[in-house]
Structure formats: C-alpha cells, structure tokens
Write a structure and sequence with these properties.
Elements (H helix, E strand, L loop, with lengths): L1 H7 L12 E3 L5 E6 L5 E6 L18 H13 L9 H11 L5 H14 L14 H13 L4 H20 L28 H13 L7 H10 L3 H5 L6 E2 L4 E4 L2 E7 L2 E7 L12 E4 L2 H20 L4 E2 L2 H4 L7 E2 L14 H18 L12 H14 L4 H8 L4 H9 L3 H9 L8 H14 L6 H14 L3 H18 L1
Antiparallel strand pairs: 1-2, 2-3, 4-5, 5-8, 6-7, 9-10
Length: 484
C-alpha cells in the first residue's frame, strides 16, 4: 500500500509530486489547499514547472508550482484569499481622493471605464498577476494607444493596487515595473517634430486633397501651443483678427458625465482663478491669414449649426465662463466638434499617407499625436531663444520646471547650428603657418630684393622643422614672385 501511494504521487514523467499536488488522467496538474478562512480551493495547470511545454492545442497558463508559491506566501503572511474585484478597489480608491480636482476625477473615471472596467477590472485582485497587466498594456499598444497614454493607465492602476496592499488584500503590486517592456518603444509625446518634419507636414497638408481640411486646425496648434482640448474649443469670438491675438479661456472635453458620454466646457488646465484661466496668445500674420480664409469657407456652416457645449456648473462663475459655447472654429461635417481621438487617428492616417507617397529624398514623418504639435510649438520658440517665463505663460505650464525641460532638450539641428557658427577650439597648425607667411610677405617693400631675402632667411631660421620650412618657403616665394 505504501508503494502504491508513492507511485501515485509521481507524475507521468516520474517526478515526485508535493503534498496537495496530483495529476489527472488528461495530463493536467492539480493543487488543493485550504485558505485562512477554512475554505478548500483547487487550482489547475497543464505545466508543473516553467520548463514544461504546454500540450498542443491547450492554452498556456502559469506553472502549478509558481501558483503554489504565491498561495503559500499569502498563507504565511496571513493574507486571506481576496474575492474583491479590481473594479471595487478602484472605486474605493477614487472615493478617497477628495482633494483631487473634479476634472481630474472625471478623467480618471473616463479612462478607467473606457479600457479597464469591462476587462481586467472584473478580475479578482488575488488572481491578477504582473503578466496580466503586461498583456493588458500590450493590447492597448496594439490597438494604437501611445506609450504615454498607457502610462496614464499605469498611473491610475498602480496606486489602486497599492491601496489593496495597504488593506492587506494582496502582497505585491502587479503594476511594479509592468511598463518596462515598452521601454524601447519610442514615446510620441516626448519628441517635437524637427524643422524638416514640420515643414514637410505643412506643405503636404496645404496641398493634399483628402487632409487639406485639417490644415487650419493643425497650423493653429503649431502657432499657439494650445492643448487639443483648448484648440477644439476655440470659437470665432476668441480670435481677434485686428490685434492678432487668440484667447484661450476654456477647454472642451468629451467625457462620461452621470453615466452619459457628452461634451462639456470647463476651465483651462491648472488655472485656479479667473485671471489664470485666460491665456492671450499673440500670433503672426501667417496663421491669421489661414484662419481668415478658413472663416470665409466655414463661417456660415458654423453659424447655422445649433451645436452647443454646456459649461460645468460649478466652474461657470468661479472662472468667468459662458453658460455654453457655440460657433466653433473647427467643426466636422455634422456641424459638431471633432473628438481628440478622431484628431489623433487622423494624424496617424496623415503620416501613413505622406510616407507612402513621398519622394525618396524627402524626410520621413514619425508617428505623432496632437500633443506633439503643442510640444513642437514650444521647441521652436525655445530654439529661437524666447524668454523662458514668456514661453511658460504661452504654454500655460503650472511649473517653470516643465518649461525648462523643453530648453534642456535641445534639438540636434540646433546643436549643429550652434557649433557651426563658432570657431573650432583646436588651434590649426595651418593657420599659424598662414599668419607667419602673411607677416613676412607684408614686410616686402620697394627697398630691394636683398631686404626681401633677409625676411625670407629669418623666417626659415625661426621655423622648427623641415616640413614647416618647405611650406613657408613655397608660399613666400610664390607671393614674392607676384610682388615683383
């Protein structure tokens, strides 16, 4: 009987199975344990250890013994099996953030509900592994999300799991280092367009039959540094054509409010009072002319539209906002606003179309988002040495450090230009020779050949090596011949 028991506790590869482990007839491994509540649980896996291969046609899962380690770690540390979902702990986390700005709270809710709530949000906390978080981020990236947008999800999920740890619901944070695998992927929010890329984009948009209608919006972003929510919210009343000033005094957002997705208008980002809420952006004649033409082409259509965006009630009086906004500068064919996602998808399509049909010698356009347009505006002004405080005011940055980062990330083109405009720090041997030769020849006068030859001899005697002597002799004799 003892021999039979020992035999049963081996798998089909002859490996001895631990307490609670067994192998089923179909080849699956099973582990049974009792949690701290006295409840029995069973987990399964097609692999005992990580080196085992998943049988053909079966879904790859975590090795049984890896799962056992996590379970036993929880039992040792007194962590009870958690039947609370990620959605539940997120809602609790957000309810505790009472000092957050209402717009920030709405943004968190919107992003979580859009991508997390109906996916991994339904998982039990104790079942979520780091690989699940990585799979989730990888899926977002494959669906066209930028690395910076995925980072925003990380910024939401990480503190949510941290709360679960503090409450003793889980031991480790599955979001820890979960973004590392995206580290080598270029983040489009970090780099401005180069001068060549910006020029190529502008020329392409101006003449392209399909995307020409986005030219005024994109040029406005490049000329003002406005956030996309601010640019899309511009009305014709915000543009002073006579004084060439564009007023940014509100922003529009497409968010879920009271369970319904709708447009809302609100204060600009970081503003805390009426004065801070208004940024007056002086602009040049080129963008004024572009907007004048755009107004001629679209004003009647915009004026005829009954589309309105209503202001968040508690921000209307506090920040001097209108009850609602209409007569927008940039509208779609339905007379409504473009959503930020629509614009970002359009920018991606523009890049693909341009790169497909460009000349072989032309610069390639990188993948970029609407935020890159804002960053490009800041970079061009930093390259032109605009005062840092002025640029901070134009950009609406909360901290001067954010603006200073732009100055520190100087483009390669600017480095080359700066170096090219200076004299080499290495003293050229040729320049020394030329100076000596010039001095000698300048001493030649009409006093006669003897005096000239004396200068020649003295110069050669002062030289230290044959190579230098030969060069000096050749140059002096050549110029001497011309002089005589």
């Amino acid at each position: 009987m003892t021999n039979k028991t020992l035999e049963k506790r081996k798998d089909d590869k002859g490996r001895i199975l631990n307490k609670g482990e067994s192998q089923l007839e179909d080849g699956r491994y099973r582990y049974r344990y009792t949690d701290l509540n006295g409840k029995r649980h069973t987990i399964y896996s097609w692999r005992l250890v990580s080196s085992d291969k998943t049988p053909a046609g079966k879904k790859k899962d975590n090795p049984l013994r890896d799962a056992e380690k996590e379970i036993n770690k929880k039992l040792v540390n007194g962590v009870k099996d958690c039947r609370i979902t990620l959605n539940e702990i997120f809602d609790k986390y957000l309810s505790l953030k009472i000092t957050l700005n209402i717009n920030t709270v709405e943004n968190y809710k919107y992003m979580y509900d859009k991508d997390v709530r109906n996916t991994i949000g339904q998982y039990f906390l104790s079942d979520i592994k780091k690989s699940d978080i990585k799979d989730f981020y990888a899926l977002l990236y494959k669906n066209g999300y930028s690395v910076s947008t995925i980072q925003l999800q990380q910024n939401i999920l990480y503190p949510t799991f941290k709360l679960a740890i503090d409450d003793g619901l889980i031991l480790i944070n599955p979001c820890e280092d979960a973004m590392n695998f995206l580290g080598n992927i270029s983040c489009d929010e970090k780099e401005a367009l180069t001068i060549e890329e910006q020029e190529a984009l502008q020329l392409f948009l101006k003449d392209d039959l399909i995307y020409n209608r986005y030219y005024p919006l994109i040029m406005t972003c490049l000329s003002t540094g406005a956030r996309i929510s601010e640019a899309l919210g511009l009305t014709w009343d915000d543009i002073d054509f006579k004084n060439k000033i564009i007023s940014i005094n509100h922003q529009t957002k497409y968010r879920k409010v009271n369970g319904k997705i709708q447009w809302t208008a609100g204060k600009t980002k970081w503003s805390t009072n009426k004065k801070q809420n208004i940024r007056l952006i002086p602009v040049h004649d080129d963008i004024i002319n572009i907007l004048k033409k755009h107004k001629q082409d679209t004003y009647r259509f915009s004026k005829a539209s009954d589309f309105k965006v209503y202001t968040i009630p508690n921000e209307k009086n506090a920040f001097g906002l209108k009850p609602y906004y209409n007569n927008f500068v940039f509208i779609n064919l339905e007379g409504k606003l473009f959503t930020p996602n629509t614009i970002n998808r359009t920018l991606e399509s523009i890049t693909k179309r341009y790169n497909k049909y460009k000349n072989d010698e032309a610069v390639m356009l990188p993948h970029f988002s609407s935020h890159v347009l804002r960053y490009t505006f800041a970079t061009r002004n930093a390259e032109n040495k605009m005062d840092c405080k002025v640029l901070q005011a134009l950009m609406g940055h909360k901290n001067i450090a954010t603006t200073m980062d732009i100055y520190n990330k100087v483009s390669e083109q600017r480095k080359i230009q700066e170096v090219g405009s200076t004299v080499s720090p290495i003293i050229s041997h040729t320049s020394i020779i030329n100076n000596n030769t010039s001095d000698c020849v300048n001493n030649i006068n009409n006093s006669g050949l003897i005096e000239i030859l004396n200068d020649l001899i003295n110069t050669i005697k002062q030289s230290d090596n044959d190579l230098t002597q030969n060069k000096i002799l050749t140059q002096i004799l050549t110029q001497l011949s011309d002089k005589l």
